[in-house]
């Protein structure tokens, strides 16, 4: 099984979100295993005047997959006591919460890769994708996407209840070339190819 052309540490450093902490935590979770492929995904969203970032690292190493997720927030959000005699304009203390899970590859139940192609009428396998979305499921859990049901008649005002679909998921990552570059999309596809091979190998 081939390894990534970018080292795990280099990929985490490139993500730029508490790289020392993330690298230390993921390395400990690997427990001596050599990383073979990884996805490092930093997501940014805005909440009123605040900017929030999250980093998710997924690493394939031999017969396991390590999933780590880190986000940060003000310590007072955790109901931590505010020190007395602290000036009002003192910046809030920031804390980071990081979780890791080590998943045996043999436990992976579903691996779904969705691809968005630019100009499908002029398809070229050498051309980069616009984006990929990866769903990996290993616990049997699922997300239910619901929406109002209708009968197809635009003038009908009757309540037809709800409909929806179950989407297997333990982790979902959307990686777009416009936001993260073609390299990130290519690395995600390489990770999926390696994980598919590992699933076949270790599920026997």
Labels describing this entry:
204 residues; alpha+beta; four-stranded antiparallel sheet; 4 helices; 9 strands; 22% helix; globular
Describe this structure in words.
With 204 residues, the protein is α+β, with helices and mostly antiparallel strands. It contains 4 helices and 9 strands. The chain has helices spanning 8-15, 19-30, 177-180, 182-202; strands at residues 37-47, 50-61, 64-74, 94-104, 110-116, 131-137, 142-148, 162-168, 171-176. Strand 1 and strand 2 (50-61) form a beta hairpin. Helix 1 (8-15) packs antiparallel against helix 2. It starts with 7 loop residues before the first helix and ends with a helix.
Q: What is the assembly state of the chains in this entry?
A: single chain
User: How many helices in DSSP terms?
Assistant: 4
How is the biggest beta sheet arranged?
A: 4 strands, antiparallel
Low-confidence stretches: none
Q: Tell me the strand percentage band.
A: 35-45%
Please state the average pLDDT score.
Answer: 84
Total strands: the figure is 9
What is the spatial order of strands in the main beta sheet?
Answer: 1-2-3-4
Shape: globular
Elements, N to C (H/E): HHEEEEEEEEEHH
Structural class: alpha+beta
